Amino acid sequence: MADEQLRDYVLQRADDDEGLSEHARLVVLATFGEPGDLAEVLSADATPQRVVDALNAPEPEPETPVGAYLTSIAVQGFRGIGAHLELPLHPGPGLVIVAGRNGSGKSTLAEGLELALTGVNSRWAHKGKVWSQVWRNLHAGDPATIRVGLAEQGRGATVVGVDWPPGDVAVTDLRRWVQRAGRKQDDPAVLGWSNALAMYRPMLSYDELGGILDGAPSEFYDQLYKLLGLEQLTVAMARLDAEVKALREPSAVLKKSRDALRPILQAHDDERAATALALIGTTTPDLGAVAALITDGGATAPGAWRQAATLTMPEADEVEQAAAALRTAGAAQADAERTADALAADRVQFLETSLEFHDRHGTQPCPVCAEGTLDDAWVVRARAALAAEQEAASSLRVARSATHRARQTLVALVRGVPAPPAEDADLTTIAAARLAYASFSALPLDDDGALADHVVAGLPALRMAYDALREEAAGRIDVRDDAWHPVAVDLAAWVKHAEASAAAAPKLKIATEAQKWLQDNAATLRNERLAPLADEAREIWAALRQESNVDLAAIRLAGQKTSRRVELRAGVDGADTEALGVMSQGELQALALAVFIPRATSDESPFRFVVLDDPIQAMDPSKIEGFLSVLVGLAADRQVVVFTHDDRLPAAVRRSSAPARIIDVTRSINSVVSVHDSLNPATRALDDAYRIARDDAVPDEVKRRAVGVLCREAFEATLWDVYASRGFGRGVATADVEDAWEAATTIRTRIALALGADANDVGAVDTWLDRRTAHRIALAVVNKGVHQGVHDFVEAIRNVRAAVGDLGRR
């Protein structure tokens, strides 16, 4: 899904625009959704409710990205550092100033960090090859390695490494790797920081600082665009542009197809061509009618041709079998007729009556001849004669029925033969077919034998005539269809284009409406999206400007495509102007920082650190104090590391009460570089306490209170540094570390946390206290001394310093 805030900007403006249709509003919203959402919203008259609900549903609160702090930067054999050097860093919020003169090797540490995380060095990125040729340290260049220690929240210790093979190799012949605790080395891509390094780049060198405003206008524009998530606006507009272009394509293809088809139809002599020409020329053509011209070629041929091409007749075997069956049935009937004479039926009736007479009256003289006797012997003889007569009569009925059926079958075969067409239709063989049919269908129905002979004898002539007629008709149809086929293919293609155009038309109307709205509102959307960052940049500028007469006004994204740029407006004593043209070099540098810092400290960034290399070279003294206040504010929830050769920043820290750690970088012969703590909050507090203790002008009553408070401040600052560094180094979430610290409300429970024990582990604390007398004395000073005061000031400070030193070495 698109970034929720940007989507909400778009949705709110679309909702407020009464001139935008509901369907177009959904289309605008869908351009910021999943890839399939736009097509689905445009695919139906009524957008599925599921899609509507999904597009309008509020997204869940985004999870805070898993943060990463720096634990160390180690360099060997690279640039200005020869022997192995490690810069230890506390993984957690706080300000660290790494100070050293030009050439001391401090910038090599910053460059090593950048190279390890990004694979490139911005100092060389846009310069000639000579800048990157001598990259290996001249005094101790082999092995050449970089190691960056990270504390990933939720994962623990991680190392990002860079190795070069020995010998004269290019700086680009490096191997970068990542190794998480307990795992093998892997590709840096597993960190998932590729996009984040581009959008929320946490490192800024002096060269990059100038490049922010001095580079091509489009580059600065693109950087802000990515940071603000506005590339999704570009993606959305490009997606909608592509959809509109795709929806317009069917109409363009249809026109091209129509233009190519029109002269073909005009030149064709088939009557279908004229019909098709009229149909495709209309604004809303009847596609069904056009399709019929394509698929119903045979149906549009002359009727006589179609009828002649489908003429059928029985097979010769079927006719022979039917004729043979008639002959056989006729012969059987003749035999039965010879067997059963004309008196057979009367005799049967007479015998049946006589038998009934005997059944009623018994033995009696014959009533017919009066000579014989109708006795039992007569009954036997009569019944036998009756059976014989009945069988002969039944056989005759069966024979006559069989003959009738055989005759009907043969006649039906003949009657089932269709007559040739009544129209000639230019068919040369139709006359012969008519004659053959007339002869074949003239049946001698009064003689079964003659009927059978007639049908069998007439079939070959009819078949020959019909075959010739069918072949001629089918040939004429084929010739006609062959001539029409290429046109039909072209028409079929045109129908597909017309269907696609018709289907795309309503979608195109909605998509075009949405496209115009999005184009009209894009500039406003961009600058509304930019507003929070612009406000933050102005706040930072207000802190940095100090005595400058230039007030940063509007920051706007202007133009598009090749003319895209960032407009920085300024007010000079109330007059509006372009900022870059009226600022000094120091002001430009401060402005670049004001623009960079909101990007680097975005809530969406996974980097809990910001690294600045020589950011104050052109700043006048009045801006250093403002810059320090900005750094302190950032360090409240960010690890801020500043490399500088300018002693004005460390001096500003020493003059103020800023909670910052100062690390000095020194270089000796043969590129041997070393680092050591010059100042940290605990050291500063104890130094302040010592100065107060030694100052005779300060009353003892003040000393008793101040020394105790400062010692407590130093002791607790050390406990926090030790505890937080261990927790962050193990990947514990910042909130969990801070919550556990806040829950430990006594100095003893916080000692336990710093020792790596449970807050309520009394034994661990007692063991540490027993290890050295200074530990117990220090606990008394920072505990009771805060409330009751300290009496032996110097001794109290000495013991607290010793305890702090022991804790810091854990």
UniProtKB/TrEMBL annotation:
<dbReference type="Pfam" id="PF13476">
    <property type="entry name" value="AAA_23"/>
</dbReference>
<protein>
    <recommendedName>
        <fullName>Nuclease SbcCD subunit C</fullName>
    </recommendedName>
</protein>
<dbReference type="InterPro" id="IPR027417">
    <property type="entry name" value="P-loop_NTPase"/>
</dbReference>
<comment type="subunit">
    <text>Heterodimer of SbcC and SbcD.</text>
</comment>
<comment type="similarity">
    <text>Belongs to the SMC family. SbcC subfamily.</text>
</comment>
<dbReference type="InterPro" id="IPR038729">
    <property type="entry name" value="Rad50/SbcC_AAA"/>
</dbReference>
<dbReference type="GO" id="GO:0006302">
    <property type="term" value="P:double-strand break repair"/>
</dbReference>
<feature type="domain" description="Rad50/SbcC-type AAA">
    <location>
        <begin position="73"/>
        <end position="127"/>
    </location>
</feature>
<dbReference type="GO" id="GO:0016887">
    <property type="term" value="F:ATP hydrolysis activity"/>
</dbReference>
